[in-house]
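ugh ok fine here u go
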Amino acid sequence: MFDARYSIRSQVAGALGAANIGETVTLAGWVAKRRDHGGLIFVDLRDRSGIVQCTFDPDASGAAFHTAERVRPEWVVKLTGTVRRRPEGTENSNMPTGEVEVIISGAEVLNTSDTPPFEIEAGIDTDEVTRMRYRYLDIRRPEVFAALALRDRVAQRFRRSLEARGFMEVETPILGKSTPEGARDFIVPSRLSPGKFYALPQSPQLFKQLFMVAGLERYYQIARCFRDEDLRADRQPEFTQVDIEMSFVTEDDIISMMEDVMHEVMKEASVDLPVPLRRMPYAEAMDRFGSDRPDTRLGMELADLSRAFASSEFKVFAGALASGGVVKGINAKGAGDWSRGKIDALNQIALDAGAKGLAWIAFPAEGDVRSPIAKFLSAAEMDGLKTTLAVEPGDLALMIADARDVANEVLGVLRLKMADELGIERTGYDALWVVDFPMFKYDADEDRYAANHHPFTLPREGDIDKIESDPLHVGSYSYDLVMNGYEIGGGTLRIHDADLQMRVLKRIGLGEDEARTQFGFLLEALSFGAPPHGGIALGLDRLVMLLAGAHSIRDVIAFPKTSSGADPLTGAPDVVSARQLREAHLKTD
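structure:
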């Protein structure tokens, strides 16, 4: 709401309407457009609230008319005039203020502007780097400003909803200690401690657990987080998460609370999120969709074809099944008439995703079946394939024969690729919980077990005895909030027993001395009456991206980085002076 007590204006442009007719108002903003119609000059004045048409009449505007003759787009002006109804037939129903105009009697140029490098309007065709180089101008455009305004409303709704449920907002340090939490840390040299470094937080995970030991019971923070990792459309080196932690709760308590909060938050974008949301076990998500963040709107579910090919003499299928693997596939409906070259290109995608190769059979809308493997399959096998995948003329069967987890993952990648290629409609908001993640996974590159979520996750009570003997079959109290194929949030119940925490740290390859060096402060805290607790962190950028209908989180971040991590606006990252390096006790090659 605009408060004229703190402004040189009496009103804002976008709020003017029929109720203001006859009022004398003072406005200030940017010249969006200027149109000289000979006897009259029209200026569309823009401020953050919107646009209103201001009319300069040489008879009514006096000296202000001469000011209007020289103003240009993006000049900053202060205008005074009287609100009147637009003449009949000149109303603009596409503008909220299109019923009225302001007849200007006074005008002052507050600043001039160079010619902008692109039009300050919606839907411009300008490359992203240029827009990021002049981001302060890009933000003036309506869709960019609208995204930031939506981000503000979403953040404020989180605050109000969490405050209403007894949460306290407390900040955590930005300069912290480097700990092995998954991604690379950004490190900061310490001038006062030569040879030592701070790390920027990947998340406030350990601090929020300390808050629970401290007795805060319900904490939240809209926190800045940093991860030195390769970038993509939904990933930036610095990002924002809504960080939440609760004491004396179960997994169901946290999920139910978050569903209620999310229902309220999404109303800010006029989205009615029906709750409670469905829950899908991790194993089911991988088996049906090949992803732990499935977009279930796409159809094209993975199907197990092992039974259909149980007696197959095709060596690839028979070999995979004999070694304990599976044959799985998807039906890309509508791709049966693709060319051989276009289908073969999918093989490289499968190889890049970890497969040994891709088997395919095309069923054209008209004509014979096409496939390099069809000649090795019996009629019964072909019938089993068509029945299991519900194949019809015009379909394309894509198959992977490998270990189950490899087949699932590769088909999950192909499923998304085919959804893009076939233009499968993705409308609405598909939200669900993926639950019951395994506690550990095996890292073949490092030849050790790693935590699936993080090493502070509470193992399932009945599986604790398997930590040392059978880690891959240890379940966990874990849950991810998934929306439209994106992980919007992830959380777990936490370990609150110091001995159990040490067992988990040892299981992921940390010796006792190293564990105490890295996490001694946490282990010590857990020995001082730590309550049972758990929480969740939600990606604010990703959520706003989906609610805004954007294609990248860069579209909803005020000053984002490029895919290479660069900032075209400021030139960061950049070199620093020799003096700065000396003070930080650093040398560069």
